[in-house]
Amino acid sequence: MEGMSATSTSPATGSRPSAADLASQTPSGRNRAVDLYRAAAMAIVALGHWLGTVVVIRNGKLDGGNLLDFAPEYGWATWIGQVMPLFFFVGGFASATSLRSAERRGVRPADWIATRLRRMVAPAAALATFWAVAIAVGAAAGGAGTITLAAAGAAIPLWFLANYTIDTALAPFTFRWFRARPVGFTALLLGLFAGAEAARFAHVPVVPQLNWVIGWLGFQVAGFAWQDGLLPTGRKLVALAAAFWALAVAAVTIGPWPAVMLHHGGLEHSPTHPPSTALLLFGFGYSFTAAALAPAVNRWLERSARAWKVTIAANSVAMSVYLWHMTAGMLVIGVAYLADLIPGVAAGTGPWWWMKIPFLLANVAVLVPIVRRVAPIEQRQLLGGPTTWRWGTASILVVAALLSASIKAWSSPHAPVLVAGLLGTLAVWHGALRVRGDGHRAEKSPTVSS
CB–CB of 404/160 below 8 Å? Predict the structure, then answer.
């Protein structure tokens, strides 16, 4: 997650720079809309997960799921709340900006990948430590099952991090190939995606799973195109976005895909597991709409110093909010369960939505102090200099693959797999990515960069 970065101290205060310090260092040509979109996406994800969580008591035990499992008529809301394509899109833009800067400074691809992985994994390792300790304590107290269920619920957002890890590790190479042959490389990706999609409908095993990488990579590559100035502008970009919206609507009305952009039980053709043609069309419509609005958003952020400071501040805690919002939700649910306050009303009904309000307020009240506590971990990574990877490029790619697999396992509903994922994530962090003050971090001059 490329964000605002600078040295770890502010010349004026000798401490970490404030949002105002970073705002004053913003380069004049920065695409500020990218930062706003990133922060907004994280907030929408947190709110969407909180709203969509359903908890019920079955046979005296906690159970639950996704609102769409209980009330699929709310599928229309996913056309607003499914922001992950936008996040990969702006992530591609930010990665392209950062990679250009790295090339000018002679930074090796392995060093760039290691720096980005550290930024993602440091806050994730703190979350993994929390849940590893919680499960161990729960097991000692005879409540391992309940704690593991909560850990699985808290890990719901982590599929994104597993995929983003792969895209980040591939970025130095995909960006190079895209710049060399933008049309050819894009056509190759689309062809591979179409082949894997066809394999899904033909019930060919394994092959469709390739779209877990290819599908999300497509949005990253579109972000490369945006940063490289290859997308149309003005009315042409608006028309392009409208065309993709029209195709997305057609895909879910006359095509085989359901009119929902999130996975839930009972779907014959999932839109996201793995990414489908419908999701690609929807995601490009969403992303190109954001790109079309970016000039106006940039003008607003340039005029409003306060809005820009808030955007910077939000980006400095975005990863912490993303990682911990479901943990806050699980803690609130746990307290409500012990206090016998779990609502016994049907999900999606008017009374159920009214009951959501106190839970949302409690989630925020729990999340705020958590973020205050853990955000410095994220901020130290964002404000630090690049990492020097001591081994070759192949080794950092292996580390990224192990990390992605561990995070994916961590989000499993099966306790042994979940625990293995937690321990694997911690092993990768402590064994490969953590810098222990041994001089492998290069310092850089104060700056604000992607």
Answer: no
Given a cut of 80, whether residue 4 has pLDDT beyond it is no
Is pLDDT above 60 for 447? no
pLDDT band at 386 (very low <50, low <70, confident <90, very high): confident
Two tokens, residue 332: 């609130």
**Backbone φ and ψ of 62, nearest 5°:** -70, 140
Interval 354-385: pLDDT, tens: 999 999 999 999 999 999 999 999 988 877 77
Buried-exposed string 253-291: b where 16+ CB fall within 10 A, e elsewhere = eebebbbbbbbbeebeebbbbbbbbbbbbbbbbbbbbbb
Phi, psi of 58 (to 5 degrees): -120, 120
**Rounded Cα distance, 146 and 372, in Å:** 27
- CA 164 to CA 359: how far, in whole Å? 30
Give the CA distances from residue 269 to residues 83, 203, 212, 252, 254, in Å, rounded to whole numbers and listed in that order: 20, 12, 15, 11, 14
Angle between helix 350-382 and 305-338 (nearest 10):
120
Say what the pLDDT of residue 27 is.
74
3-state SS, residue 290:
helix
User: What's residue 56's pLDDT?
Assistant: 87
Gyration radius (Cα) of the chain, Å:
22
Please tell me the distance from the alpha carbon of residue 224 to that of residue 388, in angstroms, as a whole number: 25
